[in-house]
Amino acid sequence: MRGFFYPRSASGDASLIPDPPWYYSGDLLTAEYRTDPARVAELLPPPLEPAPDDPGAVALIWADWQSCSSGRTELLDPVRSQYKEAFVVVRCAFRGEVYSRCVYIWVDKDFAVARGLHQGYPKKLGSVWQTRPHPFAQAAPSIGPGGVFGATLAAADRRLAEAVLTLREPVESNGFVNAHPMAHHRVYPGIERGASDSYGELISSGAAEFQGGQAWGGDVELRLFESPTEELARLRVDEIIGGYYRQVGVVWDGGRTLARLEAERPDYHG
Amino acid sequence: MRGFFYPRSASGDASLIPDPPWYYSGDLLTAEYRTDPARVAELLPPPLEPAPDDPGAVALIWADWQSCSSGRTELLDPVRSQYKEAFVVVRCAFRGEVYSRCVYIWVDKDFAVARGLHQGYPKKLGSVWQTRPHPFAQAAPSIGPGGVFGATLAAADRRLAEAVLTLREPVESNGFVNAHPMAHHRVYPGIERGASDSYGELISSGAAEFQGGQAWGGDVELRLFESPTEELARLRVDEIIGGYYRQVGVVWDGGRTLARLEAERPDYHG
Amino acid sequence: MRGFFYPRSASGDASLIPDPPWYYSGDLLTAEYRTDPARVAELLPPPLEPAPDDPGAVALIWADWQSCSSGRTELLDPVRSQYKEAFVVVRCAFRGEVYSRCVYIWVDKDFAVARGLHQGYPKKLGSVWQTRPHPFAQAAPSIGPGGVFGATLAAADRRLAEAVLTLREPVESNGFVNAHPMAHHRVYPGIERGASDSYGELISSGAAEFQGGQAWGGDVELRLFESPTEELARLRVDEIIGGYYRQVGVVWDGGRTLARLEAERPDYHG
Amino acid sequence: MRGFFYPRSASGDASLIPDPPWYYSGDLLTAEYRTDPARVAELLPPPLEPAPDDPGAVALIWADWQSCSSGRTELLDPVRSQYKEAFVVVRCAFRGEVYSRCVYIWVDKDFAVARGLHQGYPKKLGSVWQTRPHPFAQAAPSIGPGGVFGATLAAADRRLAEAVLTLREPVESNGFVNAHPMAHHRVYPGIERGASDSYGELISSGAAEFQGGQAWGGDVELRLFESPTEELARLRVDEIIGGYYRQVGVVWDGGRTLARLEAERPDYHG
């Protein structure tokens, strides 16, 4: 049976996602802010601990991606290569190292959901939009001083977040919250009624290759909205740190296990 | 940390899927046919074997569902409870017992993708449509003699399957291919480059409760179409067995492990 | 050139909508309430006047439709026959007669947008959901005492309205606001910069044939939400009149002109 | 009553489209080819005539747009400003002048459908995708020699067209078929059963302002697919003329009437 992911078959052609490495070209719009550190700590299960400094820092990042596998065939059938996502990153510590960690994420394609499942990103479907730069200004900003970019996120027919970013100047990086290797849980709930997880591990992962253009910084307004099925608004915006825009190229080619997790029965919600 | 599925949090409110049991009310349109048994066998990894009789039998089933958890709150926000799916079922044998097995499936909501991941259904997103019965005939068939129902499936902007079912008479069941407990693989690919699967098991699962209305049988036409990312058309329609329509109510409440699978490196496709 | 609507061609096969009559089978969930009559009057351009009694009455109606043309071929390709809509109806008077009038409407298919353009319904795209009844109660209400139905509307990634209807008893009708022939404007803005409308008429239209099941009445909760591109919330819910559920079959086969409108330059917004 | 388009209201805020002028920034991928001139002539109702030279020339154009009104507010809520379209252009003659004419077009937003209705573009909804250029090559081509771009079109869950364009060199223009002012019909079918059109005119329209980047030419492969509700494949690809890519900025600010059309009963299809 071949196929990196399901459905596996004799040829592997139907696999929802191809073998890594996976390649990405895209634009990142980042809003960094501070929330109550206790709200961040709630999202850090053991063995993770809060980051030692600025433990309430949060990055809400929009990304407009084109992606493909080594064969690049997806690029010629772009319904299979383009997707957008919005994701929330916090920082945490494990064995004395600081990691970034994605706690919420929404994407608009199924292959992106499956890649997230593999990488430990907790992906749901959402409707994600961000203003695009373009060389002609009739209906587009430029990546430069005064360029204004909007970004929105919705899921299940409710708007969850909105940002407006006005660029001011070149800066050294597009933020610090998402700048570490990721520390993610990969968990598979047990199939029996009331069972503990069948599998659990803490993994680390990051870009195998990374190219970044000039990062731009600016002023960002950010609004979060309540939803009965989301907890994003619980990470209330107490203080804006900054807003950033950057174009990047990335290769992802696997991660490594940081810790195997004890299989224990989760504290069921119901 | 609470939450049956990701993202887990202090409250569990954001979990993409709630704790089982899960409840379903819906309509099933089934087309059963025979294909080359070798094409079915290709989709049965060890320790599964072909079913001893009629090993080339296939069921292509459309389902128009409303579903909810025990709290039934999803029913009042129906964007979170309604979904449609089309799935392909074959039969197989394990330790002398015959099982049904879903080899391909497409759904149109993310919570359904996640439930499938838990249950071992290899779900992708698709666009799924089936004619609805209605008490007024201006633009609807009845579930009765002469009622005509259409059903279509598309994914990634390509039509994959079409069926037209004309009901003839009450029958004892809506087919035999999907009538056994399911035998599904639950597999989690390893995070390291080129690694074997981190986790693999063969599980069995079926309805904890089932209610079915009168099954109707009839004549069905079925067409499958090629796609570069799908292998459905490889299960060529050699001989139609029959077409069926049935309304059902189902409760699902977990399964059980049939076998833990050796963690072995999959035969990568690339 | 053939074709009821664009694009017209030698065969007419590509027309976005077929020749009337058009046939509909579906379920209607209605919430009737009173708002400030001045807000209704604002939506009644001359020569329309407010209805003489209860001029602030509003109906917000969700409809889950299957529809087709005389050839019924759309029913076998249900992506072309099923759609959902939510619409807002008020009443008005013209030459001493009372009419119903749809002031806002959202649908989820293009053929429905085009039919609305023909009939004078001001259709936009939206995401529309309403709970479905089903014979099996695992995840569905029945149309009967205690049956609870939810309904939601969103457009441009913002939720605009939500209703929850709990059925109590059979009633004589599913409301009075949408019970008259419709009085709609059909207007085509002029193509030249700043021009008056090229065409304008007031038309009346209703069902050529109608069948209705037992209407059920009950208690309804209704919430409207703000959006920068919608004015639905301006029709504030001051007093609930009632909630209703009814299954219907309808044929539509054209309307008639009530008045040709003077071509005058609209009072541009910009 | 204010509002350029429906629904008109006291403020005009709910109008599906704002007052012109409308502003556009986007990328155009064009495939030009020759088909049987008789198939083009079929789509030219009187008083239009075939173009005097190369009357079988066709352009199939994909466009990835960002658009806004004078206030530019849509750019900050990009679900309201971004859309994609694929459209088919032929040429025709009227009173000795050559015009371009859009005979089929699919878009993916409702505001684009409404603008098309105003401008005489026969817009349907479709799923439209085209590869995007990006400064980082991990998963994107550049606009330059060897850049490869794919483009696809689907409607009603069927793929209708696919193109693959490989850029070779700078060229003077991105084609000649769409290079003239547009000659479009604006037609409003009559509301009474079997009536002739209520309104009909032939209009001309083009860009009020236009900026174009360097046009690139190359080799293009184009495939058209059958659909029961489309006639695109009837414009069979007999000979490829060329493929082009160009980034543009456009302002549209109205057109002018070329001829009022006799109101005559269309030759109904049914």
From TrEMBL, chains A, B, C, D:
Domain of life from the UniProt record: Bacteria
InterPro entries: Acetoacetate_decarboxylase, ADC_dom_sf
Protein name: Acetoacetate decarboxylase family protein
Source organism (scientific name): Paractinoplanes ovalisporus
